[in-house]
Amino acid sequence: MRHSFMRLLHIALGLIHLFSIEETTGQHVSFHRGAVSAAHPLAVEAGLEILKSGGNAIDAAVAVHFALASVYQIAGNVAGGGFAVVHVPDGRILTLDFRETAPAAAYDSMYAYLMARYPDTKPSLEGATSVGIPGSVAGLFALHDSLGSLPWHRCLQPAIQLADSHRLTPYMASQWLRHTSDIKRISGFLPSFLLHDDSLYPGQLVRQSELANLLRRIAAFGPDSFYHGTFALQMADFLQTHGGVHTAEDFASYQPVWRKPELIPYRGYLIATMPLPSAGGIGLRHFCGMSESLNLHRIKPYSPRYAHYFAEMAKRVYAHRHKYLGDPRDTDPDILSRITSDTYIRQMASSISPTFRTPSAAFGTPSPASIESFETTHYCTADSTGLLVSITTTLNGYFGSKLYFHGMFFNNEMDDFSTLPGQSNQFGLPFSTANKVRPNRRMLSSMTPAILLHRGLPIAAVGTPGGTTIITNIFQVLELMSRGWPLEKAIDQKKLHAQWLPDELIVENGALNPTTIKKLQKMGYQIREIEQIGIFNAIYITPNRNFVPLADSKRKGDSCASGW
Ligand code: GLY
């Protein structure tokens, strides 16, 4: 069953290729009209369908976003949030923040209070108390309102059809199976197609009529049908019944925000990415600046010296993130301009010794922490007018809060705030005053959708899930590209991750050879090998302006890319 289903999907995508191939570059096919890369083949098909109907890359992004909500429910979302980086035909880069916000009644010690009162619960991770006010519907609508070309309702049609009926991939069948009992425990019931969870299998037909109806309303009436009126009241009631403090007013007052992009010159390239409340822009600026000071490009990638410099830079990036970064409204602009100045970043680099490891405690008091699982998703779209779109979106954990309502899962983004003094969040990040829970504020994120430019022209859109590993992963891909590596090789390369705390170097299996690992251990490194870091989706643009859609085929998941 699994085999024949996957074959059908591949044949369908193969046919798309066959009728649209323009040229072949290495193993990859390039296209001149448009391209889509996303975490699920059916979402890629949705984006291509819209491009072929005369839509532009923004229309395709709307189609992909809501298709992911229908078929990739671990991270695709209606009730999540994210960030968009867009290159527009006149050469401008726009960035839209549709990150979730804390409800107005949230306060800094709310999770300490909830934990004391209900010691056996995980209030920032599960259920209504973990839910931030979602930004995706408003965000995608704002993008479309400014830059879309097809009618909004048309862009949601593929997602509605997929919600009505699609077949499970083996990966998604396994994800539903893994999380079904938690979903049932937290929501109190299961979506109807999961009622007989022992029969979940690859190729199974999934019918989500509630989700299809919700998407139909959003398609017909836009974000007002979500943030205002009956549905907003129902969401607030439902969340309050489950222990949340959300009100209809919280939904009514949600606004996405156009922000000034973070533009980072790096070895002849320009990286365009998100400013706060993403820590990605400032983190990448720190990484890129320090690596230029250290002449990292002269050091063999994934050698002991490279891994040491990488880990030392990462410690400094994350210690700064922890100390200074949060919602932009609470962050002192003078401090921000000081810590992002070239002089300051050179000083950060000059504190790195080529031979000695700095213990994390040098930057503050360590606390016990570990990196756990994390899920988010990235997609990119491109068209021949010059629109290039790079979007990372999330529910935070797998299926977010695991609270199911009208066919959608609410996010558990509140855990991205620093919720408990003295304790770490699911990514192992310790408590930070800069990122403490405040009413109506956005929680700090690591999502780093990026567009890479060379000589003023965009040459790639890239992004990956992976919580705190996103920033380190994106940096490694861009650093390898700046050495002349093809993007697909940089994506395939096994990666490293480190952050200030826990004080360890995380190694994706195979990134470092055993001799290198031994040398690093002698320097005092705690090494932890893990199976997978992130999963990239990207579009590369060739010098003759053709698109090479790229999906990460080396790591687990349904990542897919195609064009026409
Ligand atoms: N929820 C993961 C992130 O925003 O970085």
From TrEMBL:
What is the E.C. number? 2.3.2.2, 3.4.19.13
Q: What is this protein called?
A: Glutathione hydrolase proenzyme
Residue ranges crossing the lipid bilayer per the database entry: none
Location of the active site:
376 (nucleophile)
Can you state which reaction this protein catalyses?
A: an S-substituted glutathione + H2O = an S-substituted L-cysteinylglycine + L-glutamate; an N-terminal (5-L-glutamyl)-[peptide] + an alpha-amino acid = 5-L-glutamyl amino acid + an N-terminal L-alpha-aminoacyl-[peptide]; glutathione + H2O = L-cysteinylglycine + L-glutamate
Question: Which Pfam families does the UniProt record give?
Answer: G_glu_transpept (PF01019)
Listed under subunit, the entry gives: This enzyme consists of two polypeptide chains, which are synthesized in precursor form from a single polypeptide.
PTM note says:
Cleaved by autocatalysis into a large and a small subunit.
* Residues noted as binding L-glutamate in the record, renumbered to the chain: 99, 394-396, 416, 445-446, 467
Biological or metabolic pathway of the protein: Sulfur metabolism; glutathione metabolism
Keywords from UniProt, A to Z, are: Acyltransferase, Glutathione biosynthesis, Hydrolase, Transferase, Zymogen
Q: Give yes or no: UniProt keyword Metal-binding.
A: no
Q: Which organism is it from?
A: Schleiferia thermophila
Q: What is the lineage of its organism?
A: Bacteria, Pseudomonadati, Bacteroidota, Flavobacteriia, Flavobacteriales
GO biological process terms, alphabetically, are:
glutathione biosynthetic process; glutathione catabolic process
- Which PANTHER family does the record match to this protein? GLUTATHIONE HYDROLASE, GLUTATHIONE HYDROLASE PROENZYME
Q: Which family does it belong to?
A: Belongs to the gamma-glutamyltransferase family.
One GO MF term: leukotriene C4 gamma-glutamyl transferase activity
